[in-house]
Amino acid sequence: MPNPAIQFNLPFNIALGDSAPSTLPPEVRGAIEALYNAVNQIQYVFHTHVGIGQQLQTLWSQLKYFHTLHLASPWRLYAEATETIVYGAAINLFLSGGALKVRNANATNNTKPAHGFCTTAAGLTNAVFGEVILMQGLLTGLAGLTIGTRYFLHTTDGQINATEPVAAGNIGQALGIAVDTTALLFCTDFDFLQH
């Protein structure tokens, strides 16, 4: 799958110093420090509400799940992968080594239902932390979708299909509807039907 056009990996810290240079006159120093404080407050609000000021990728492994879910985008989560997951793949959350991790979802049986999709542009590999969207969101950068068609979790790791898998033991889990030939409105409530 092609990479998305937009990436949201902006640094949370814009590397301003904690104080203005002491060589400046006090009134200038005060104005600079007030501006610095205002920028920090704006940055904090954006980060908290919409995730615009996301932490650097090097910090993802240190974050708890509640640090990664934003008020205006509560379905965004940073988690560790246990296998290779490509951009746009349907993902499954599970417990591994006492921690919440992600792997490819798969409809072969009921052990790996889809909980969301991978939005990390370069995809993920084993032991790498990355971004996934849970339950709902617009998944862009796909190819070959049929507009208006409902898509299901596939029996191939992470993939979607316009046909529901119905072999014995398979799960039928609707994941969303194509709103363009390259975009899926992903929306799942985690329900599925096992055949």
Given this structure, which CATH class of the domain at 75-194 is correct? Answer: Mainly Beta
The strand line-up of the biggest sheet is 1-3-2-4-5
Mean pLDDT: 83
CATH fold description of the domain at 75-194: Virus Head Decoration Protein, Chain: A
| Termini gap | 29 Å
Topology as H/E string?
Answer: HHEEEEEEEEEEEE
Walkthrough of the structure:
The protein has 195 residues and is of the alpha+beta class. The protein has a domain of 120 residues: Virus Head Decoration Protein, Chain: A (Beta Barrel). It is built from two helices and twelve strands; from the N terminus they run ααββββββββββββ. A five-stranded mixed barrel has the order 1-3-2-4-5. A five-stranded antiparallel β-sheet has the order 6-11-10-7-8, with no helix packed on it. A two-stranded antiparallel sheet has the order 9-12. β2 and β3 form a beta hairpin. The N terminus is likely disordered.
Nutshell version of this structure?
With 195 residues, this protein is α+β, with helices and mostly antiparallel strands. The protein is 15% helix and 28% strand. The longest helix is centred in the first third of the chain and has 25 residues, at 26-50.
